[in-house]
Amino acid sequence: MKAPDFDYLRPTSLDAALAMLAKHDGGAMPLAGGQSLMPMMNFRVASPEVLIDLADVAELRGITRDGGTVRIGAMTRYAQLMADAIVLADIPLFAMALPHIAHDAIRNRGTIGGSLALADPAAEMPALMLALDAKIEVAGPIGTRAIKAEDFFLGYFETALEEDELIIAILIPAASTAQQFGFHELTQRHGDYALAGVALACSDNTYRIAFFGVADRAVRVPALEDALGSKTEMKIALTHLSDIEFTDDPKASAATRQRLAGVALTRALEGMTS
Questions:
Q1: What is the DSSP letter of 176?
Q2: pTM for the full predicted model
Q3: How many distinct structural domains can be found in the chain?
Q4: DSSP-derived pairing of the beta strands 143-148 and 135-140
Q5: Residue 249: what pLDDT?
Q6: Which of 84, 121, 206, 227 lies at a CB distance of 3.0 to 4.6 Å from 232, suitable for a disulfide?
């Protein structure tokens, strides 16, 4: 199949991109890498009247550190994240997770902002945002706002982003030497979306644990985090996984996903590094 007809626009500034988005009033979609959007259009799952290609918007690129916060432009590609010195030094969890995202061809084109805007519940990036207590900075007609990751992902392919807003950057606290991080995912083949996965950060026995591929969005389980922080026996701590409303589909039943989530968490904890 091929995509339905659409108009193609390529702005060179953020203001121009936002103006184009507003002008088409819900009929336009941003193109931030296209690794998910283009297949969706080919299968007629998405059919925007206009594509607004963000590739030439310089304001959406770049990685900087300001004080204790790393700012990543929304159009930063996975391959750039994997090679950046700031990311490698200050966001160890990225270094653990990025090699698991699809394959080289996808990582060379896919962007962090595109992944977060799509909010695929089986993708790694939303879970990383939850585990790292990140904020997503968005811009719209009335200015910019920063949305906590906890409040950004609302459901299956659903976010707090308004139709006339764009993700412009991601703000992540730089890791301290006292923190530890873990990551593990279970897939049918390397590069596939996870049947169950987990990303976690730990500081002074305080855990932030985000599961992905198991529910309608990346999710945390506060009772489980508290149990691990108080050094509850693992078998007992894992009973709190029942707080998740696990996805039940042809790839895996809800019961299987709950078991796999426990396996992923156990392995992530065993492999924690600073």
A1: P
A2: 0.94
A3: 3
A4: antiparallel
A5: 92
A6: 227
